Amino acid sequence: MPPTHTVDRAELLAAFDAELQPERFKDYGPNGLQVEGRARIGSIVSGVTASRALIEAAIEAGADAIFVHHGLFWRGQDGTVTGWMKQRLRLLLAHDINLFAYHLPLDAHPTLGNNAQLARVLGLQATGRFGEQELGFIGGRADGGRFDSAEALAAHVGSALNRPVVHVQPAQAAIEKIAWCTGGAQGYFEDAIAAGAQAFITGEISEPQAHYARECGVAFLACGHHATERYGAPALAGHVAAQLGLAHRFIDIDNPA
Fold first, then answer.
1. What is each CA distance from 6 to 23, 33, 39, 68, 103, in whole angstroms?
2. pLDDT band at 173; cut points 50, 70, 90
3. Which domain range does residue 216 map to?
4. CATH label of the domain that carries residue 207
5. Residues 6+ away with beta carbon under 8 Å from 77
6. N or C: fewer beta carbons within 10 Å in the chain?
């Protein structure tokens, strides 16, 4: 992945911030530059999570920077640098690699974010937003059609994401109004119901949501946290890299969760 051009770290950070506007969000951890590496950047690796496997793959690819959705630092951590945290930081620091991470801002971006890109993959089109910080998207099929049943929707989503879907559906009616929010957004289900959705797509399910689905007659589809959030990081990082003339490569570290 040889770079054709390099930019200053501050210029790349400013480009990411301009697209994602992290100051608009109340988040669970710091957005932006989480680990400082070399000052000049010519190549970016994007991925979902700043795991050791992704960092090692980025080192192998010769990256100057890594762009992820799930960074290293979260509210409530004890702040110690031991175990897995030490191993990840050791690799980043030893190889002078910058780590950029954007959580909720990447979910919310209207065209390049996780929710927008999941819609692209699933053939959906958003007509509105819902939920806390308006992170949830709601709309229907981009072609204006409908799904004959929740089972048909679940089959479509499973095929598009290439993984099984956990599907709770008490009714057999046609599905036209669909809400979605990627990752661990099962807590948005009640807001989706209130917004009039007939089905809700997210990454995970917790115990209460199965009861809400059955009692409210709204389908719940849990499609995998990682599987629903594979698309925002490469779209955003690729867009910024193209703007600045940088090399970019997405590396997908599979995760069954």
1. 26, 17, 10, 20, 25
2. confident
3. 124-227
4. 3.40.1390.30
5. none
6. C
Residues 14 and 101 in one domain: yes
The answer to the question of residue 118 being in a domain is no
In angstroms, the CA 68 to CA 66 distance is 7
Extract the tokens encoding 10.
């501050």
Q: Are residues 138 and 191 in the same domain?
A: yes
The rounded distance, in Å, linking the Cα atoms of 33 and 253 is 21
In a domain, 132, yes or no: yes
pLDDT greater than 80 at residue 127:
yes
pTM: 0.96
- Answer yes or no: do 96 and 146 share one domain: no
Nearest to 68, CA basis, from 254, 257, 252, 255: 252
Q: How confident is the model at residue 49 (pLDDT cuts 50, 70, 90)?
A: very high
- Mean pLDDT (the chain) is 96
DSSP designation for 147? B
Q: Do residues 72 and 151 share a domain?
A: no
1 located within any domain: no
**Residue burial 89-114, b: 16+ Cβ < 10 Å; e: rest:** beebeebebbbbbbbbbbbbbeebbb
The predicted-structure confidence for 4-20, as pLDDT tens digits, reads as follows 699 999 999 999 999 99
175, 207: one domain: yes
Q: For residue 115, tell me if it sits in a domain.
A: no
For residue 169, the model assigns a pLDDT of: 84
Question: How far is Cα 27 from Cα 44, in angstroms, rounded to an integer?
Answer: 24
